[in-house]
Each structure stands twice: as C-alpha cells, then as structure tokens.
C-alpha cells in the first residue's frame, strides 16, 4: 500500500550542501514556506509528499528529496513561486509531545488521516486542537483524508471530514498517494491560501 | 574531507589574508573590539547570543560595502561571513561554550540516562524495522555525531549533526529503493536518530545544541539544517524524558532493566573507588598481597581473618573460619549465578567492567578458587 509507483528512483539528495539556498528569500514573488506534516503513523504522510515532489517535472526547479525533509518549488499562475519546505514528523504516540518543536514557526500545517481508519481521524482531530492552541495564529491548516482509492474499506465518511474542516476553518481534501489523485490540487490550494507579504 | 569542507577552510585562510590587508584595518578593529568587549561582562548565554547575532549582521553590511569585496558574489560574501563566524566564535569559545550551569546539569542528566538505557536498549524497543538495522551505517552515523566536540565553530558543530543525519537519511532512501518497503519518512527517521544518539552518547549534548542555536548565523539555521537540528533537539528531549511508557517494552521489564543498570553503574563506581583507595594505599603501611580489598577498620570486623597468620591460629578458630568460609562461598556463588543468568547484553558490560578492574572473569575462575580454598580449609583442620 502507500507509495507504490512513487518509489524514489534516483535520489538527488543534497543534504547540507545548499550553499546557494539563499536563506530568507522572502520577497513577494518568491515565497519560502515551512510546511509541517502531522498525523498518525501509517496514514501515508510521506507518500503524499513524495508524490508531490516527484510529480513536478519542471527541470529548472530545485528539489530536495530526503527521507523526511523535502522541498519543492511550484510556480503559480500569477507568476509567483512558492518553495515548500516540508517537515515530516514522527506520528507514533510516543513522540506526540515533541511535535511543538516541529510546528513552531510553520506557515502551513497539513493534518493527514487515513479514510480507512477511524482512529487516525480521531488522532487528526487531536492535532487540529493542538495546533489551534499552540500553533501560530495565522497558520494555514489543511485536513487531508488519504488512501481515498480504498473506498470499499472506508471508515470515515467524506461528510465527516468536510464538516469537521468547515467548523475549524480548514481546507479539506481527500487524496490518494497511490493514484496521485488530488495531490497537486492539495499543494496548489495551500499556495493560494498563503498570506502574501504586502508590497506595492 | 569532502569538497565543501576543504573549500571552506580555503576560504577561511582567504578571509584571514584579506584581514591582513591594510585596507581591512577598520574591519579588524571592529572584530577585535567586539571580542575584547566580552571580557567586560560575566557570561550570559541569551544576551551574548543576541549580541553575536547583531554583530554578524553589522559586519555583513560592512563587508558588503567594503572596497575589498567590491563586486563580490553572494557566495563570496557568504564565505567571508562563514569565516568571520568561525574566527569570532573560536576566539570567544571558552567564554560562550558550556558556561551555563543549567545546561551543564542537563548534559549530566542526559549522560547518566544514556549510560543506563544503553545497557538494555534494542532497536525493536523503538520499533525500528529490521531492514533499517544496519550496524555499519549506524556506526558511521554515531562517529559523525561524536565528532561534535572536536569543533569550536558553530558551523562545524552543526555539520557534524548534518553528517550524522545524512547517513541515516541515505539508509532510509536505500531501504526504500531496494525492498518493497513503503517509505515512512519521519516515522522511521526519528527512531533511528534516537537510537544512534543513545549509542553514540555525544559529549555535552545540551551545551552543544544551545551553542549552535545561539551562535550559528541565524540565516544559516533554516530549512534543511534547521530540520535536522530540530530532530536532534527532539531526540534529546525524548531521551531526557524517557520512561517506562516511552519504549515498546513491558513497564515492569523496563523498571527491572533500569534497576539492573543502576546497580551496574554503582558496582562500577564502587569498584573504581576500591581501586583508587588501593592506589592510595600502595604508599601506606598495610598491603595485602594480591588482594583488592583494603583493610579498613570496618572491614576488619567483617573479615576477621584477613590479616591473620597461620601460626597465630588455634583449633578454636576452625569452626568460626568454616562458618565464615561457607558464608562467603554462598554469597559468591549466588552472585555468580545472578550474573550468568543475565541476558548477554547485560552481562557483558559487567564482565568487561570487572576485567578492567583486574578482577578477571570471576565466572570462569569460580571452581578453581573453590577447590583451592577447600583444600586450604582441610589443611587447616589437620
């Protein structure tokens, strides 16, 4: 299950060598965005990002594909670019108390659950509450129901996801990392919702 | 040494060269007076960190506007700033590194915790899947992390963390490629990093992390380096708070393991104390040949015949000697049995410790000693 077709073929991991990484390139045209992934272990958090990062075929874009840190730049229609720096977090219960170290200063939090696991949906709600309490106030929140291809085993009705997200002012989408359904849509929508630094 | 490191050290010498140029006199003056200014105040990590960061920014502006750097590329400016950071922090190292008592206390707590946990922790206790249990990779990662104290510059300390994480990262990527293994990202990365950190037991972990956080140029502690740095901070917190609920291990078993580990460390420290007293006693009057037990008044009452000579002994002593002998043998065999019943992972450190104390392998010597002592006792009875 999970990533299947999107196993990394050639890793262009450039850990630590990013000299030209040009820190703080925070002008209005080129955003650098810290995105943190939260969710129970096994819901396919890393598969979603791998799909996203590998699915972009712009040869000019600089990507970093680590096992748990990935970055990818996307170009939007208004000729701005958004560089997502994606921080994966360990989803096991025993690491739950460490999460604040990761989501501190994040502009975006993507909370992922598995539509075939009610437990993972409950865990997602825990993360949302946690973020509302301790995350930065202008953080963009997205709720993602993954493994949408496994609809025969569905335990979480799509309506429940929609309603919960609406109540909490979040963006909601169901994805399948396996079939790549809605993966790009997820990141494009997030990019649109980002607050822009005001310029003239 | 990889390419980036050697080019970094080249650029450091290049920076020093430029500083020798008479045109740099003003830059040199600012750097020197900044360094000297630190001797006017007692160390205060938070405000010192802030001052250093502000100084970096001031100097960056000065370098950008300086004639020696006219037309310099962003990369050249960056190299100059890396060199400046290295120069300033090497000079200020003893005033800024490990000066906080609080951090030193945490360093000690982590060290103690790791020493205990090390004696029984297995990869499965952190649910690390078999495909990631690669001793060679882990050893490499541990070595990188252990290097952290060999550097003074924040950038180099940070890169020792990065190198460690890079090894783990590659291990995970390889696992994802070779097997039908679903990449699990941080779900796998963090446990392996925690395991490697416990195995490596890097020196002064808290002080090192604090130092990097305060004195690494803020513009450089972002993105990927920040992510891996955060992971080590998180591993540190996990280890510090590690309790009976942190591992995939029965809670009672965890407590037992911790108790046994504490006992071992106590035995070790007690044994080292004995050796120390022995060493001190070597210049004293009393010396017991071949013995590692010192003859303090207290021990004399516990082991009354230790100093006795055969010609002084009478028949009356035999009964008492026999009782004492049986008692000693009973205690000794119980101890041996207890040690040999321990799982190998627990036994080895104890045996190693005994060996290093010159006690030798007590388990193997057991029958020999027993026989000797028994024949001695027989002789004495005659």
UniProtKB/TrEMBL annotation, chain A:
UniProt cross-references to Gene3D superfamilies, sorted A to Z:
P-loop containing nucleotide triphosphate hydrolases (3.40.50.300)
- Record region (Disordered): 1-26
UniProt xrefs under Pfam families: Ras
Specify whether Nucleotide-binding is a keyword of the entry.
yes
Q: Which UniProt keywords apply?
A: Nucleotide-binding
In alphabetical order, the GO MF annotations are: GTP binding; GTPase activity
InterPro entries in alphabetical order: P-loop_NTPase, Small_GTP-bd, Small_GTPase
Locate the compositionally biased regions of type Polar residues.
Answer: 9-20
Q: Does the keyword Transferase apply?
A: no
Q: Which NCBIfam families match?
A: small_GTP
Q: What is this protein called?
A: Uncharacterized protein
From TrEMBL, chain B:
Q: Which SMART domains match?
A: VPS9
Q: Which Gene Ontology cellular component annotation is one that this UniProt entry carries?
A: cytosol
Q: Give residue ranges for domain VPS9.
A: 104-248
Which biological process, per GO, is one annotated for this protein?
A: vesicle-mediated transport
Q: Write down the superkingdom of origin.
A: Eukaryota
Q: Which residues cross the membrane?
A: none
GO MF terms listed in the record are: guanyl-nucleotide exchange factor activity; small GTPase binding
Q: What is this protein called?
A: VPS9 domain-containing protein
Provide the species name.
Acacia crassicarpa
